[in-house]
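Protein: Thioredoxin reductase
Species: Amycolatopsis pretoriensis
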Amino acid sequence: MTENSYDVLVVGGGAAGLSAALMLGRARRRVAVVDGGSPRNAPAQHMHGFLSRDGLPPSELLKIGREELAGYGVEVLDDRVTRLDAGFTAELASGRELTARRVLVATGVHDDLPELPGLRESWGTDAVTCPYCHGYEVRDQPLGVLGTEPLSVEHALLVRQWSPDVVYFPHTTPLSEEDRTRLDARGVRVVDGAVTAVRREDGHLTGVELGARFVPRVALFIRTRTVPHDDLLRGLGYEEGSTDPMGKTNVPGVWAAGNVVDARATVIIAAAQGAAAAGALNHDLVAEDVQRAVDAFGGFTPAAERAAAAAR
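Structure follows.
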C-alpha cells in the first residue's frame, strides 16, 4: 500500500468510529480515521450508562480512545472529508487525498432545536433529550418536558420515572383528551400555552417562560428532530434504512454505524455498533484477500485434477 492508501477509511471519530477502528487495528488492518471534531454530545459535561465509564466527560472518552488506537498503528486525522467517490477516494479539507478498499461512515447527527431564547445556551447541560443519560442527575427535582411532537407525551411519561414533579408544556403541539388523562393519572402537571423562552440565571436553567408567566424548573427534556450527517453516504447511493444488523449498507464496500443511521443509539450502543460493523467489514476483506490469493495462485483446481497431477 502507498502512504495514502488504507484497508479501511473510517469517517467520524466518535464512539462508533473509534470503536470500529480499534477492532480493525487489532485485526492488523491499515486504518485511517478522519474526524471533523463536532460530536453530538460535546456540550454535555458527563456521559452515563457506559459500563466502566459512567460519569466520564465525553471528550475524555475520545481522548482515551485515540490513545488506544495509537498502540495499534491506526492513523487519526483531525480533518474533514469533503468528497468521497464511488472508488473510495476521499478528498480532505486540508487537500490530502486518501484511498481505501472499504469505508465505514460514523458521522453522527445534530439536534434541530426549537428557536427559543435561552434554549441553545442550556443544551446538553440542563436542557437535554435523553432521560437515561441525564435523568438520574436531576432526580426528584422540578423537571419540565417541552412538547415538540405528539410523542412528546410519551417522553413526559418516561421522565416521570425520575421525579414526582414533572410539568408538561404542550407548547404548540395539540394535546388530546386521552393524553391529558394519561398525564393527569401519572401526576404530570400540564401547563398550556406557547413557551416563549427558557430562563437562565448564573449559568443555569431556572425555568420556562410563557409570556408573562414563569414556571420554575431545574431541567427541561425535549424530543428533538435529529438530522443525520449522511451527505457522504447519500452521495455514494445510500438508501435510508438499508443498513443490516452489522452495519452493511446497500452500497458495496460501505458500512455505517452509530447515530448517522440510528439516532436513538446512546454512546455505548454506538460503540457496540462500530465494533460489530468492524468485525463484518474485516470478514469481507478476508474474503477478498483469499480470492486475490487464489487468483494469483493460478485459480481453483478441482481435487480430481490435483490427484491426477500428483500421480504423474
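Remarks: Residues 267-297 form the longest helix (31 residues).
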